[in-house]
Design brief:
With 105 residues, the protein is an alpha+beta fold. Helix content is 27%, strand content 26%. The protein has helices spanning 23-29, 67-81, 93-98, and strands spanning 8-12, 17-20, 36-40, 46-52, 55-60. The protein has a five-stranded antiparallel beta sheet. The N and C termini lie far apart (30 Å).
Length: 105
């Protein structure tokens, strides 16, 4: 199975968005797998999280890109948690993902 391409975009159980620079950084950073709702790599491919607390693994689900789902969840995140800010408006996926705020930058 191919490796997820960074950055990875993860959503917790409240659908708060976290954009993390790559898979390894995300796996080291994320603590509780039961707080994970969904995620995508930079190509909008869905991710699955497995593992135990403080020892999670991200992997592609094997499904094709889900760009519409990613864009919808990002828009929902901005409406709920970043009021007054506008999500990236780029029509192309690479520019859209590049416009997301990466944690720790």
């Amino acid at each position: 199975m191919p490796t997820p391409i960074g950055p990875v975009i993860l959503f917790d159980d409240d659908l708060y968005m976290y954009v993390l620079k790559d898979r390894a950084w995300a796996e080291a950073w994320w603590e509780m797998p039961d707080e994970y709702a969904c995620g995508f790599d930079a190509l909008a491919r869905p991710l699955r999280m497995t593992g135990e607390p403080h020892r999670v693994t991200l992997e592609l689900t094997g499904d094709g890109p889900a760009e519409g789902d990613l864009r919808r969840l990002v828009g929902d995140h901005y409406r709920r948690f970043r009021r007054g800010q506008v999500p990236p408006e780029a029509s192309g996926l690479p520019a859209f993902v590049a416009g997301l705020p990466v944690e720790g930058s």
